[in-house]
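Hello Y.,

Per our agreement to keep a running log of every chain we model this quarter, I'm adding this entry. I've kept the format consistent with earlier entries: sequence first, then predicted structure.
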Amino acid sequence: MKISTKGRYALRMLLDLAEHQACGFIALKEIAERQSISKKYLEQIVPVFNKSNILRTNRGFQGGYALAGSPSQYTVGEILRLTEGGLAPVACLEQDPIVCERKADCATLPVWQGLARVINEYLDSITLQDLLDQQREGYANDYVI
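Predicted structure for the entry above:
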Protein backbone atom coordinates (compact mmCIF):
# COMPACT_ATOMS: atom_id res chain seq x y z
CA MET A 1 0.00 0.00 0.00
CA LYS A 2 1.27 3.43 -0.92
CA ILE A 3 -0.43 6.67 0.06
CA SER A 4 -0.89 8.94 -2.96
CA THR A 5 0.04 12.59 -3.25
CA LYS A 6 -3.67 13.38 -2.98
CA GLY A 7 -3.88 11.66 0.41
CA ARG A 8 -0.73 13.32 1.73
CA TYR A 9 -1.78 16.77 0.55
CA ALA A 10 -5.31 16.33 1.92
CA LEU A 11 -3.89 15.51 5.34
CA ARG A 12 -1.61 18.55 5.19
CA MET A 13 -4.50 20.77 4.13
CA LEU A 14 -6.75 19.64 6.98
CA LEU A 15 -3.90 19.91 9.46
CA ASP A 16 -3.28 23.48 8.28
CA LEU A 17 -6.98 24.29 8.80
CA ALA A 18 -6.80 22.75 12.28
CA GLU A 19 -3.70 24.75 13.14
CA HIS A 20 -5.30 28.02 12.00
CA GLN A 21 -8.78 27.24 13.29
CA ALA A 22 -8.88 30.39 15.45
CA CYS A 23 -8.48 32.53 12.29
CA GLY A 24 -11.92 31.58 10.96
CA PHE A 25 -12.33 30.71 7.32
CA ILE A 26 -9.05 30.25 5.46
CA ALA A 27 -8.59 30.82 1.73
CA LEU A 28 -7.09 27.97 -0.29
CA LYS A 29 -4.48 30.41 -1.53
CA GLU A 30 -3.15 30.81 2.04
CA ILE A 31 -3.04 27.07 2.64
CA ALA A 32 -1.34 26.54 -0.72
CA GLU A 33 1.34 29.08 0.13
CA ARG A 34 2.00 27.76 3.64
CA GLN A 35 2.07 24.13 2.53
CA SER A 36 3.84 24.62 -0.82
CA ILE A 37 0.99 22.89 -2.63
CA SER A 38 -0.62 24.09 -5.85
CA LYS A 39 -3.95 25.85 -5.27
CA LYS A 40 -5.32 23.95 -8.26
CA TYR A 41 -4.41 20.67 -6.57
CA LEU A 42 -6.18 21.73 -3.37
CA GLU A 43 -9.26 22.64 -5.42
CA GLN A 44 -9.41 19.01 -6.54
CA ILE A 45 -9.25 17.76 -2.95
CA VAL A 46 -11.88 20.06 -1.41
CA PRO A 47 -14.98 18.38 -2.97
CA VAL A 48 -14.12 15.09 -1.23
CA PHE A 49 -14.35 16.80 2.15
CA ASN A 50 -17.36 18.97 1.28
CA LYS A 51 -19.35 15.80 0.54
CA SER A 52 -18.31 14.22 3.85
CA ASN A 53 -19.18 17.29 5.95
CA ILE A 54 -15.62 17.65 7.26
CA LEU A 55 -15.34 21.18 5.83
CA ARG A 56 -17.45 24.28 6.19
CA THR A 57 -17.30 26.84 3.39
CA ASN A 58 -17.93 30.54 3.26
CA ARG A 59 -18.15 32.36 -0.06
CA GLY A 60 -17.38 35.97 -0.79
CA PHE A 61 -15.28 38.48 1.10
CA GLN A 62 -13.25 36.71 3.81
CA GLY A 63 -14.49 33.43 2.44
CA GLY A 64 -12.67 30.16 2.55
CA TYR A 65 -12.70 26.87 4.41
CA ALA A 66 -12.78 25.73 8.01
CA LEU A 67 -13.08 22.39 9.74
CA ALA A 68 -16.70 21.60 10.54
CA GLY A 69 -15.71 20.13 13.91
CA SER A 70 -12.88 19.91 16.36
CA PRO A 71 -9.48 18.56 15.20
CA SER A 72 -9.92 15.78 17.76
CA GLN A 73 -12.91 14.46 15.76
CA TYR A 74 -10.99 13.61 12.60
CA THR A 75 -8.61 10.68 12.33
CA VAL A 76 -5.83 10.17 9.84
CA GLY A 77 -7.52 6.88 8.88
CA GLU A 78 -10.82 8.60 8.08
CA ILE A 79 -9.08 11.27 6.01
CA LEU A 80 -6.99 8.76 4.04
CA ARG A 81 -9.94 6.42 3.42
CA LEU A 82 -11.86 9.37 1.93
CA THR A 83 -9.02 10.43 -0.35
CA GLU A 84 -7.54 7.03 -1.17
CA GLY A 85 -10.80 5.13 -1.46
CA GLY A 86 -9.58 2.58 1.08
CA LEU A 87 -6.50 1.35 2.89
CA ALA A 88 -6.56 -2.33 1.98
CA PRO A 89 -3.04 -3.70 1.45
CA VAL A 90 -4.27 -6.17 -1.22
CA ALA A 91 -7.07 -6.00 -3.78
CA CYS A 92 -9.07 -8.92 -2.38
CA LEU A 93 -9.71 -7.00 0.87
CA GLU A 94 -11.20 -3.99 -0.91
CA GLN A 95 -14.63 -5.64 -0.87
CA ASP A 96 -16.58 -6.71 2.17
CA PRO A 97 -17.47 -9.52 2.17
CA ILE A 98 -14.45 -10.86 0.33
CA VAL A 99 -15.51 -12.20 -3.06
CA CYS A 100 -12.27 -13.91 -4.05
CA GLU A 101 -12.82 -17.42 -5.39
CA ARG A 102 -9.69 -18.60 -3.52
CA LYS A 103 -10.82 -17.19 -0.19
CA ALA A 104 -11.47 -20.60 1.40
CA ASP A 105 -8.09 -22.01 0.31
CA CYS A 106 -5.89 -18.93 0.60
CA ALA A 107 -3.14 -19.51 3.16
CA THR A 108 -2.02 -15.86 2.95
CA LEU A 109 -5.43 -14.24 3.52
CA PRO A 110 -4.97 -14.07 7.33
CA VAL A 111 -1.67 -12.24 6.83
CA TRP A 112 -3.35 -9.56 4.68
CA GLN A 113 -6.31 -9.31 7.04
CA GLY A 114 -3.97 -8.83 9.99
CA LEU A 115 -1.99 -6.19 8.13
CA ALA A 116 -5.20 -4.34 7.19
CA ARG A 117 -6.34 -4.45 10.83
CA VAL A 118 -3.02 -3.04 12.09
CA ILE A 119 -2.99 -0.29 9.45
CA ASN A 120 -6.56 0.77 10.19
CA GLU A 121 -6.21 0.61 13.97
CA TYR A 122 -3.01 2.64 13.86
CA LEU A 123 -4.28 5.34 11.50
CA ASP A 124 -7.63 5.51 13.33
CA SER A 125 -5.80 6.10 16.61
CA ILE A 126 -4.26 9.38 15.38
CA THR A 127 -6.35 12.54 15.21
CA LEU A 128 -5.54 15.91 13.69
CA GLN A 129 -5.31 17.17 17.28
CA ASP A 130 -2.67 14.53 18.05
CA LEU A 131 -0.62 15.76 15.09
CA LEU A 132 -1.00 19.39 16.22
CA ASP A 133 0.07 18.48 19.76
CA GLN A 134 3.07 16.55 18.45
CA GLN A 135 4.05 19.47 16.22
CA ARG A 136 3.75 21.97 19.09
CA GLU A 137 5.78 19.69 21.35
CA GLY A 138 8.51 19.61 18.71
CA TYR A 139 8.53 23.41 18.60
CA ALA A 140 8.69 23.60 22.39
CA ASN A 141 11.77 21.35 22.43
CA ASP A 142 13.50 23.31 19.69
CA TYR A 143 15.31 26.00 21.65
CA VAL A 144 18.84 27.30 21.67
CA ILE A 145 20.70 28.96 24.52
